[in-house]
Amino acid sequence: MTVLGGSALAAGTNQVAAQDVDFETAVESAIHDRVNEIRTDRGLDALAYRDDLAAVASSHSQDMADRNYLSHTSPEGETMSDRYERFGIDCRGWAENVLFNYAADESPTAAARQSVDQWMGSDGHRQNILSQSWTAEGIGAAVASDGRLYVTQNFGTNCR
Q1: What burial letters (b/e) apply to 40-61, b meaning 16+ CB within 10 Å?
Q2: Which fold has domain 17-159?
Q3: Which of 41, 61, 64, 102 pairs as cysteine with 152 (C-beta 3.0–4.6 A)?
């Protein structure tokens, strides 16, 4: 078993183990798998998964879901850099992808694929996913009361 962001995955697969894992956690794990599949198919190194980056991402996704906005900056002006600082994370470099879609009624794997495809269809988000600068990522997903799926993907290099 590989444990990522609190979920258990069967080694070598994208299938969630028999343990009861919530939808958001399963989506996060499936996105990580899909991003690394895309990267390695292009000859890039896979990204490590960092729980601290995932905590920042989860917090931002939940805030966006709770307050119905989509932005790298909260309504009060908190930026990604501010969130990293608030969580005590110091990285030499960092970036963030955010999105929302209506994939919350899909399977976690389908929701993850739709989310990654959405990012890959956007030049800036695609550049983040395919950047050789990043060595790690953390992903946070949250489902809003209206059924929208919010996802934040945080990247970092040389984080401590």
Answers
A1: eeeeeeebebbebbbbbbbbbb
A2: Pathogenesis-related Protein p14a (3.40.33)
A3: 61
Amino acid making up residue 148 = R
**Under a CB-based contact definition with an 8 Å cutoff, are residues 70 and 158 in contact?**
no
Provide the whole-model pTM: 0.86
Indicate whether 26 pLDDT > 60: yes
Q: Which residues of 77-115 are buried (b: 16+ CB within 10 A; e: fewer)?
A: eeebeebbeeeebebeebbbbbbbeebbebebbebbbbb
| Amino acid identity at 33 | D
Domain-by-domain residue ranges, the chain? 17-159
